[in-house]
Predict the structure.
Amino acid sequence: VPICLGEKVQIFPDLFATSLIFIGAALTTAYGAHQDETLSSRDIATLVMRPANIALYLVLLFWLAILWKCDEWRSEASVGKAFTTPPPRMSQVVVIASTAAIAGCLMNLHLKATAELIKSGSSWSGVVLSLL
């Protein structure tokens, strides 16, 4: 991203974060399920409605709301101040990275469920409903 924005690439947090992303992608690819199992819409609904999954969704959404509110407070605190770009603090890096990770996690879960619905031959209304 810094290259796209014309900024200088820094060892921390840019290269460190990029390394973690590549390592995470490699590990999830290497250790993920490699057999082709097709789930029906009923199977997906059963998985989604498990109490542990509902709790996970609620915790992720709650944490995402907290992070957005923290960012809003930080933005309000900087109104009227001269525009400068100080080096990022670790707390800012963690907030931004956590927000992206949570949003990515939820998006991946929903995209996987939508792909399974399409593969299982579910109706288009069911697929569209799952996207909401």
The chain has a mean pLDDT of 75.
